[in-house]
Automatic annotation (TrEMBL):
It comes from Brachypodius melanocephalos. The keyword tRNA processing does not apply. Keywords: Actin-binding, Repeat. The keyword Repeat applies. InterPro entries: NEBU/NEBL (IPR055297), Nebulin-like (IPR013998), Nebulin_repeat (IPR000900). This is NEBU protein. SMART domains: NEBU. One of its GO terms (molecular function) is actin filament binding. One of its GO terms (cellular component) is Z disc. GO terms for biological process: cardiac muscle thin filament assembly.
Length: 242
């Protein structure tokens, strides 16, 4: 069944210029690492020209000089200590500006004028601010705020004085308890008082001996021929091993 197909497979020929074959060749060339580095390998075999006046070398040197910190600060280091056109450091605008900024930032120099004029102030006695402060001190002073009244002199038979004495006597605790003074030192027996009688009644109510009667105090005689006694005797005789 497959013999004809196997024989036919060997006779198939694909043209080399078909689109599929061309596409496969192009893809193989694109992903080939050997073709990718072929130009670099051939350039390495030819060698290289490394002259001192080559453009890449000059470019690299110029970039190194620009980036070099020494070359960057070379002019500044040479100009240190040399002032051109200024006879002294005070005449230099930059130094004068720096000194001015330092003086403005100095707290001692900032308050120098205030400290010098602080002890030279003279305030008149009748100034408005001084008078206002005195008035305010008078208002908030406790001595001037409290003025004690003078001692009044009242006659003892005035109605106001008599009424005040009566009100004081009513409110006085000594006068209120003066009727109990005659009881001090008098002996008194608590027997028969309300609290003692109440305690005795409570004790009688809580006394178990008076509340309950013990069984041995009751007079009881059992009947010998009662049905319960006869039944108990019969059961005892039936259960007896003897």
């Amino acid at each position: 069944y497959t013999e004809a197909w196997d024989a036919d497979k060997k006779t198939i020929h694909v043209m080399p210029d078909t689109p599929d074959i061309l596409l496969a060749k192009a893809n193989a060339a694109n992903i080939s690492n050997k073709l990718y580095v072929k130009g670099w390998e051939e350039a390495k075999k030819k060698g290289y020209d490394m002259r001192a006046d080559a453009i890449p070398i000059k470019t690299a040197k110029a970039s190194r000089d620009i980036a070099s910190d020494y070359k960057y600060k070379e002019t500044h280091e040479k100009e240190k200590g040399h002032y051109i056109g200024c006879p002294s450091a005070k005449d230099d605008p930059k130094l004068a500006l720096a000194a001015r900024a330092m003086a403005l930032q100095n707290d001692r120099l900032y308050k120098k004028a205030y400290n010098d004029s602080k002890t030279q102030i003279h305030i008149p006695v009748d100034a408005m601010s001084v008078q206002a402060a005195k008035e305010c001190q008078t208002l908030v002073s406790d001595i001037d705020y409290r003025q004690y009244l003078h001692q009044w002199t009242c006659l003892p038979d005035q109605n106001d004085v008599i009424h005040a004495r009566q009100a004081y006597d009513l409110q006085s605790d000594n006068v209120y308890k003066s009727d109990l003074e005659w009881l001090r030192g008098i002996g008194w027996l608590t027997e028969g008082s309300v609290d003692v009688v109440k305690a005795k009644k409570a004790q009688e109510l809580l006394n178990d001996r008076l509340y309950r009667t013990r069984p041995e105090q009751l007079k009881f005689t059992s009947i010998a021929d009662s049905p319960d006694v006869v039944l108990a005797k019969t059961n005892a005789m039936q259960l007896s091993d003897v």
